[in-house]
Write a structure and sequence with these properties.
two-stranded antiparallel sheet, 142 residues, 13% strand, 3 helices, alpha+beta, elongated, 5 strands
Length: 142
């Protein structure tokens, strides 16, 4: 603390006494060897924009809370974008896999909601299912 306060009033010197003891001061005592430290202090002039009055603690707190709210909203918005992108990617992958199964001629099974029976797609239904799957790929894989 002493070093900082001494440097505030002028140049700071490294003073080496006769017994080799090192001290830092703005003036060295008599008989001590003096070395410049390169630390100089000038009277600081007020900043050019210091004419603006200091904001009260309540105003600073309100601004801080506003910045925090904006930051949280931005983070929530970014998280929502990431979640939507992940959902689109999954939907794209699913649509491509379904289209690939249809085009490969694999048997596709559906469950009848009324009876709970397994129903296989007929050959005539494959072309319409392929068209539907292709539209799904086109919309989800942009």
């Amino acid at each position: 603390m002493l070093l900082l306060s001494a440097g505030a009033y002028g140049q700071l010197f490294k003073c080496i006494g006769k017994d080799g003891r090192i001290e830092y001061a703005s003036q060295c005592p008599p008989g001590a060897r003096q070395e410049a430290t390169g630390i100089k202090s000038t009277l600081s002039s007020p900043a050019p924009n210091s004419a603006a009055p200091q904001k009260s603690l309540a105003e600073q707190d309100a601004e801080f809370r506003k910045r925090m709210t904006e930051r949280q909203e931005a983070q929530a918005k970014e998280a929502k974008k990431v979640a939507e992108a992940e959902q689109r990617r999954r939907a794209c992958d699913d649509a491509r896999a379904y289209l690939k199964n249809l085009q490969a001629g694999n048997r596709i099974v559906r469950v009848d909601p009324k009876t709970g029976e397994r129903i296989y797609l007929e050959d005539a239904q494959y072309s319409t299912e392929i068209a539907v799957a292709q539209r799904s790929v086109d919309t989800n894989c942009k």
